[in-house]
């Protein structure tokens, strides 16, 4: 390789290293701010309550129309929040 191409490659590697470092810090920030989904929180709460010996009581039960259940399930299948 010539000196010019070696110098260009070194500059490119340095630039890519800077960009990679910036992206890694952004990903770390996003992971730190990530919210815990509600269903996971409910599952963890139930597990801790059961472990500590708390007996849960069912407060209310609602009977739903089958069509509403199917509509909501289809809606949740397309919801892609992270």
From TrEMBL:
Protein name (database record): Clusters with Methylmalonyl-CoA carboxyltransferase
Coiled coil regions in record: 6-33
Protein origin, superkingdom: Bacteria
Gene Ontology molecular function: any one: methylmalonyl-CoA carboxytransferase activity
EC number in record: 2.1.3.1
Sorted UniProt keywords: Coiled coil, Transferase
Enzyme class, broadest EC rank: transferase
Organism name: Luteococcus japonicus LSP_Lj1
């Amino acid at each position: 390789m010539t000196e010019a191409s070696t110098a260009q490659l070194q500059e490119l590697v340095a630039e890519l290293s800077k960009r990679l470092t910036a992206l890694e810090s952004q990903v770390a920030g996003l992971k730190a701010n990530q919210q815990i989904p509600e269903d996971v929180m409910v599952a963890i709460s139930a597990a801790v309550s059961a472990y500590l010996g708390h007996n849960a009581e069912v407060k209310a039960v609602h009977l739903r129309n089958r069509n509403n259940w199917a509509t909501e399930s289809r809606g949740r299948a397309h919801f892609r929040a992270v």
